[in-house]
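Standup notes
- DV: blocked on the single-chain target, sequence here:
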Amino acid sequence: MTSEQIGSVIKKQNRPVFEIWFKSRSSIKGLFIQTTDYNELKLKNFWRIVDESRIAEYDKTGNKDLARVFYGDGFTKLEITG
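- DV (later): unblocked, structure below
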Protein backbone atom coordinates (compact mmCIF):
# COMPACT_ATOMS: atom_id res chain seq x y z
CA MET A 1 0.00 0.00 0.00
CA THR A 2 1.15 3.55 -0.58
CA SER A 3 1.80 6.08 2.14
CA GLU A 4 -1.25 8.07 1.01
CA GLN A 5 -3.55 5.03 1.19
CA ILE A 6 -2.37 4.11 4.68
CA GLY A 7 -2.42 7.70 5.91
CA SER A 8 -5.98 8.25 4.73
CA VAL A 9 -7.24 5.09 6.44
CA ILE A 10 -5.62 5.74 9.81
CA LYS A 11 -6.41 9.48 9.73
CA LYS A 12 -10.16 8.81 9.55
CA GLN A 13 -10.14 6.83 12.78
CA ASN A 14 -9.66 7.85 16.40
CA ARG A 15 -6.88 5.58 17.68
CA PRO A 16 -8.22 2.23 16.52
CA VAL A 17 -6.44 -1.09 16.63
CA PHE A 18 -5.94 -2.42 13.11
CA GLU A 19 -5.32 -5.88 11.78
CA ILE A 20 -2.60 -5.46 9.21
CA TRP A 21 -2.10 -8.02 6.46
CA PHE A 22 1.25 -8.33 4.72
CA LYS A 23 2.44 -9.70 1.40
CA SER A 24 5.07 -11.97 2.88
CA ARG A 25 4.29 -12.60 6.56
CA SER A 26 1.46 -13.31 8.96
CA SER A 27 -0.94 -10.52 9.88
CA ILE A 28 -0.60 -8.57 13.13
CA LYS A 29 -2.94 -6.46 15.23
CA GLY A 30 -1.59 -3.16 16.38
CA LEU A 31 -1.87 0.55 16.95
CA PHE A 32 -0.26 3.11 14.64
CA ILE A 33 1.50 5.73 16.78
CA GLN A 34 2.74 9.22 16.03
CA THR A 35 6.17 10.11 17.34
CA THR A 36 8.41 13.09 16.66
CA ASP A 37 9.63 11.46 13.43
CA TYR A 38 6.12 10.55 12.21
CA ASN A 39 6.11 12.89 9.19
CA GLU A 40 9.61 11.88 8.14
CA LEU A 41 8.75 8.17 8.36
CA LYS A 42 5.42 8.69 6.58
CA LEU A 43 7.17 10.33 3.62
CA LYS A 44 9.22 7.13 3.24
CA ASN A 45 6.15 4.91 3.85
CA PHE A 46 7.39 3.60 7.20
CA TRP A 47 5.01 3.25 10.16
CA ARG A 48 5.50 2.73 13.90
CA ILE A 49 3.08 0.11 15.17
CA VAL A 50 2.64 -1.07 18.76
CA ASP A 51 1.58 -4.71 18.91
CA GLU A 52 -1.85 -5.28 20.46
CA SER A 53 -0.29 -7.13 23.42
CA ARG A 54 1.82 -4.06 24.31
CA ILE A 55 -0.75 -1.26 23.94
CA ALA A 56 -1.59 -1.11 27.66
CA GLU A 57 2.11 -0.77 28.51
CA TYR A 58 2.55 1.87 25.81
CA ASP A 59 -0.40 3.84 27.19
CA LYS A 60 1.18 3.83 30.67
CA THR A 61 4.75 4.65 29.63
CA GLY A 62 4.57 6.32 26.23
CA ASN A 63 7.71 4.35 25.38
CA LYS A 64 8.06 4.41 21.59
CA ASP A 65 10.54 1.53 21.83
CA LEU A 66 7.55 -0.77 22.32
CA ALA A 67 6.70 -0.16 18.66
CA ARG A 68 8.21 -1.74 15.59
CA VAL A 69 8.71 0.04 12.29
CA PHE A 70 7.09 -1.53 9.24
CA TYR A 71 7.36 -0.66 5.55
CA GLY A 72 3.93 0.17 4.18
CA ASP A 73 4.65 -1.27 0.74
CA GLY A 74 4.43 -4.72 2.33
CA PHE A 75 0.87 -4.11 3.58
CA THR A 76 -1.99 -5.61 1.59
CA LYS A 77 -4.96 -4.71 3.78
CA LEU A 78 -5.88 -2.73 6.92
CA GLU A 79 -8.99 -3.53 8.92
CA ILE A 80 -10.22 -2.04 12.20
CA THR A 81 -10.53 -4.70 14.89
CA GLY A 82 -11.69 -2.68 17.85
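- Follow-up: The chain has one domain: 3-80.
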